[in-house]
Amino acid sequence: MLQLKYKMKLKQLIFIPFFITLIGCVSSIAIGQNTMNSEKKCANTSVQRSQVMLRAILDDLTTSYTELGGGGISQIKLSATNTYVVSISQEERIDQITYEMSIDADCKVAIDKRTETSVTPY
Amino acid sequence: MKKTLKKMAWDATLNTDVATEFKNAELTLFLRMGFKQINPAGGAATGTYNDYGSPAATPRKIVKWTPSAWASWKNNFVSSAEKFWKGKFWLINNFSLLEYTYKGQKYIPNISCGFKLSGGDATNATSSSFHHIIEVVRLDKSETWFGSHSRLYDSLDTSSVPKASDSNGKPIFQQAHVHEVGHLLGLGHVDEGKPHCPTNGNTNARACYGVTDKDKNSVMGSGMQLRPKQANPWRLAMKEFTKKGNLFVTSDWEAKLNKYYPRTPTEAANKKHFISPPKRK
Predict the structure, then answer these.
(1) Residue B172 touches chain A, beta carbons under 8 Å
(2) Are B273 and B92 in contact (CB under 8 A)?
(3) Which of A107, B46, B89, B214 is buried most, with the most CB atoms less than 10 Å from its CB?
(4) Mind listing the pLDDT tens digit for each residue in B230-262?
(5) Cα B135 to Cα B60: distance, rounded to the nearest angstrom
(6) Using CA atoms, how far apart are residues B18 and B133, in angstroms rounded to an integer?
């Protein structure tokens, strides 16, 4: 029994590093493919396009919306292609910031127009 | 002389009998508010209620009012809001009206602006007893905010919370209920009428709460500071009592944030003003 265990350990010692190396190679190929094809994936994945646009909106709000109070973002709605309306609840009103954006094949986002209005929800 | 004026939004009393050589006539606005509980549906202890009372808005957790919590909230609301607005404005009597004689000397009083707020229970009352009826939700402890407005308050509205920030990033604090009482008195937002907040547009837009630091800090912006313009309900009352004055002419019943003492007719004619007690024989 002891001999058998020892033999298995020997096999493990030889094969485990081999497998790790192999997996590592496969992983790097996969990551490399991802990197190389990022333009294509961005252009073809609507969710990824939405994600980068939403990130750009949230980053912009950090500097452009300085109200400290209120109930925070209550809604972000795609009102037209590449146009989002962010609703932020405040007492007596809901601030609505409309972002018209463009996005290139590299997933680079530009805010083309930002307009702010308020609605009275009662 | 004691006169009373009754309006939809408030009542007013002008009392010149109290005037002496150092004491002005008193103009007191009376605001009778009726508070109406909003409790969870079906008599439950807990439930939800949507921001602004709007079905489309975010639901917040609420709890049932208890008699002690209700009484405590109302008392705190009334006493703190009354204290905020009471005795903060003086109006200059530029018409030399309301002349009186005190110890053989004739005087022209200025106007000392008082405020009396009462808060009754409107849960089962008719609207005729009150100038304004306000619904109030009691928020669950886990909730930090509720979308309230001029006719729907929440249990946190008497707390001081950061509303905006100034140009240096410094927070501007406000107790929402004193702002709301300003609305009930007839005041609009601080920047109403300016190009970025036209009166024919949405006067609840963010810009209407002030663009400059000074305006943002106003009680009818996002802060707690009073401005002479916010004496307009008292100026309106004086205009109606005396049939003199125009609210758009700032020198008519001109509002001041500190006391201006009564004057003799000669002093008034010479446009003399006293912000400390003048020497009298």
Answers:
(1) yes
(2) yes
(3) B89
(4) 999 999 999 999 999 999 999 999 999 999 999
(5) 15
(6) 33
Q: Which residues pair with B34 in a beta bridge?
A: B120, B133
- For residue B64, the 8-state DSSP code is P
Convert the pLDDT of each residue in B177-215 to its tens digit: 999 999 999 999 999 999 999 999 999 999 999 999 999
Show contacts of B62-66: CB within 8 Å, 24+ apart. B62/B38, B62/B137, B62/B138, B62/B139, B62/B140, B62/B143, B63/B138, B63/B139, B63/B140, B64/B39, B64/B40, B64/B138, B65/B37, B65/B39, B65/B136, B65/B138
Q: Which residue of B has its CA nearest to A94?
A: B205
Count of alpha carbons within 13 angstroms of residue A93, beta-carbon side: 19
Size of interface A-B (CB pairs under 8 A): 75
Would the CB atoms of A66 and B58 count as touching at under 8 Å? no
Query: Do the strands B254-256 and B171-175 form a parallel or antiparallel pair, or are they unpaired?
Result: unpaired
Count of beta carbons in the 10 Å neighbourhood of residue A46: 8
Q: Least CB-CB distance to B149: which of A66, A74, A92?
A: A92
B169 close contact with A: CB closer than 8 A: yes
Confirm if B223 and B163 have CB atoms less than 8 A apart: yes
Report if pTM > 0.95: no
What is the three-class DSSP state of B52? helix
